[in-house]
Write a structure and sequence with these properties.
single chain; 261 residues; alpha/beta; Rossmann fold; 2 domains; 7-stranded mixed sheet; 4-stranded antiparallel sheet; 8 helices
């Protein structure tokens, strides 16, 4: 890693498809190691396009984008797989392998990493029990409901404790009880040092988590602190200042609302 210790850094990034208009315009932000952000915005605001940049499905049309201190524009194609192995992704359409069981779908990242089968069995069974799928370990994805497939996709994304996790609408097909349980899973993973970005329309989950947000409006980025308070992002040297503002907002919100249960 270079002297840049950020996990993700965007500087005036733009993205367009073909000869069309830019779908992302002048996007600038930094994600520090161990940070947790929500990505919110109306349909068509550019959330999916930003996520595609983050998991290296596309490269920016302009601007500078770096992951783990590496300038994405300078990466050779042969370097991408190693970088992607440090990233966990929960796709909105799940992308499970239909011929593999629930257990084998979740175990796949560990097997690719060369983990011993005894360790794989212990970790996968523990995680599937956490997401309430212990009775579906041998089931194939086509036999599972949408909510069950979503939980399999989440388990597969987090099983190897990635350094960076993106989740696209991870609670879109589950009830409130499972949603809170999954949020707790993301919190625990974050405490272990994983940087997390969750794209969602679930305002209740955003408010429950009380985390900073990145909001996209017509392809442009607006920073929000906990409680969805808009932050002034004109100070380019101000990541520490933004974190201090976020802490103050969190304290004020707690004082205003009283105990949270």
């Amino acid at each position: 890693m270079s002297d840049d210790q950020s996990v993700v850094r965007f500087e005036n990034v733009g993205l367009r498809y073909g000869l069309g208009p830019e779908v992302l315009q002048d996007i600038s932000f930094t994600l520090a190691p161990g940070s947790f952000q929500f990505l919110i915005g109306e349909s068509g605001a550019g959330k999916s396009s930003l996520l595609k940049l983050l998991y290296l499905a596309h490269r920016p049309t302009r601007g500078v984008m770096s992951l783990f201190g590496r300038d994405v524009a300078s990466l050779r194609r042969s370097e991408l797989p190693a970088l992607r192995r440090r990233i966990g992704i929960v796709f909105q359409d799940f992308r499970l392998l239909p011929h593999l069981s629930t257990f084998d779908n979740v175990a796949l990242p560990l097997r690719v990493a060369g983990v011993r089968e005894s360790e794989i069995k212990r970790h996968v069974e523990e995680l599937l029990a956490w997401v309430s799928l212990e009775d579906h370990m041998e089931a194939r994805p086509p036999t599972l409901s949408g909510g069950q497939q979503q939980r399999v996709a989440i388990a597969r994304a987090v099983i190897a404790r990635p350094k960076l996790l993106y989740a696209d609408e991870p609670t879109g097909n589950v009830d409130d009880r499972i949603s809170s349980r999954l949020l707790h899973l993301f919190d625990e993973l974050n405490k272990l040092g994983t940087t997390i970005v969750i794209a969602t329309h679930n305002d209740a989950m955003v408010r429950e988590a009380n985390r900073p947000c990145l909001r996209l409006r017509n392809g442009r980025l607006v920073r929000l602190g906990p409680g969805l308070v808009e932050l002034d992002d004109t100070d380019t040297a101000g990541e520490e200042d933004r974190q201090q503002v976020a802490a103050e907002v969190r304290n004020l919100a707690a004082a205003a609302k009283g105990p949270r249960f």
